[in-house]
Automatic annotation (TrEMBL):
It comes from Algimonas ampicilliniresistens. Pfam families: YbjN. This is Diacylglyceryl transferase. InterPro entries: Put_sensory_transdc_reg_YbjN (IPR019660).
Length: 166
């Protein structure tokens, strides 16, 4: 992933750091005003669309990956159990199930209170952690939703699939 110089810092708006990374790495991205960018990262099974937004008033950077497709009725309990198992394995961020949309989402927030700046290395870490989480969560969710597997079996199978592609 990284080809930018380590420890360079973009002042003020952390979204600029992610735009620089997307440009340098030739990732498809769309800038939505000054406070938001969407970046597409290629995964093993699908492209993962990262949405990053900057809330200057709260001095908080938020990252979201919304998984394609809705959870069919009757599977939400299994999905929630799966997300709990996935969350146990994460070092940053977490998975949520948004009941209103029947949507799976990975999200992570970074506080930059007190004028803290995000370095390229930190931004790359945030993106890498999100991609790693999505690569584990996406196939496991598919196994639960479409193959009817238990959350435990789905997670085990997804982790084996990831290892075989590494």
């Amino acid at each position: 992933m990284p080809s930018l110089k380590a420890s360079s810092v973009v002042r003020d708006n952390p979204i600029e750091t992610f735009v620089r990374i997307a440009t340098a790495e030739s990732y498809a991205y769309e800038r939505i005003g000054d406070q938001e960018v969407h970046i597409s990262l290629t995964g093993l099974w699908c492209d993962h669309d990262l949405s990053l937004s900057w809330n200057a008033a709260e001095e908080q950077l938020s990252l979201f990956i919304l998984f394609d497709g809705k959870v069919p009725g009757g599977r939400s309990d299994s999905i929630c159990r799966l997300l709990s198992l996935l969350n146990e394995r994460l070092t940053a961020g977490h998975f949520d199930f948004w009941q209103r949309n029947s949507a799976l989402v990975y999200r992570h927030a970074v506080s930059l209170r007190g004028g803290a700046k995000i370095s390229v290395d930190q931004a790359l870490d945030v993106m890498s952690q999100a991609l790693d989480a999505a690569e584990r969560g996406y196939p496991a969710a598919q196994y639960v939703i479409w193959a009817g597997k238990s959350p435990e079996d789905a997670l085990a199978e997804a982790l084996v699939d990831i290892a075989s592609h590494s």
